Amino acid sequence: MSVWEVRMSNSKGLPYFFNTETKQSVWDPPSELSKEEVENLPGAKEHLSSGAGGEGRPGQVRASHLLVKHSGSRRPSSWKEENITRSQDEAVEILRGYQEQIGGDTKKFAELAKEHSDCSSHAHGGDLGFFGRGQMQKPFEDAAFGLEPGQMSDIISTDSGVHLVLRTA
């Protein structure tokens, strides 16, 4: 019986591999496991995307986001700012400016997310990968699932801050 299982990161919205004996977490599949063994781990069917083509499982969407945190965010700090003191209204105004710059340009969205998003997903242009229902905060989930691929949401607010969500698949 394998000591590994697949879990979902709440902060990144990405699957990771957890060793139940050592309590070690790793992003990449354990090297000692074959592809078939990885696919049969507990949690693999729920959390791993099928195939290398970048397609999610049924019931999943893929989205990117641009997050602006504020002083009322559950963790008012980020990779670029240790102590975020702006108000929610100020965060919304900043996001409105980004929204205007983006227009409908998905490349511009990724550029602005990479440069300005308060989420660690900024390193990937805001890409959160595939996720299903129950894996994101409810307002974020509702926005992502309510969009068609290529559509961008208006500003939504969660416990994390204010976001623009771009559904990518």
From TrEMBL:
Stored InterPro entries: PPIase_dom_sf, PPIase_Pin1, PPIase_PpiC, PPIase_PpiC_CS, WW_dom, WW_dom_sf
Gene Ontology CC terms, in alphabetical order: cytosol; nucleus
Ranges annotated as biased composition (Basic and acidic residues): 33-48
Keywords of the record: Isomerase, Rotamase
Residue segments, region Disordered: 25-85
Enzyme Commission number(s): 5.2.1.8
GO biological process, one term: positive regulation of transcription initiation by RNA polymerase II
Catalyses which reaction(s): [protein]-peptidylproline (omega=180) = [protein]-peptidylproline (omega=0)
Domain PpiC: 58-169
UniProt keyword annotation of Isomerase present: yes
Chain ranges of the WW domain: 1-32
Pfam families: Rotamase, WW
GO molecular function, one term: peptidyl-prolyl cis-trans isomerase activity
Family annotation (PANTHER family): PEPTIDYL-PROLYL CIS-TRANS ISOMERASE, PEPTIDYL-PROLYL CIS-TRANS ISOMERASE-RELATED
Protein name: Peptidyl-prolyl cis-trans isomerase
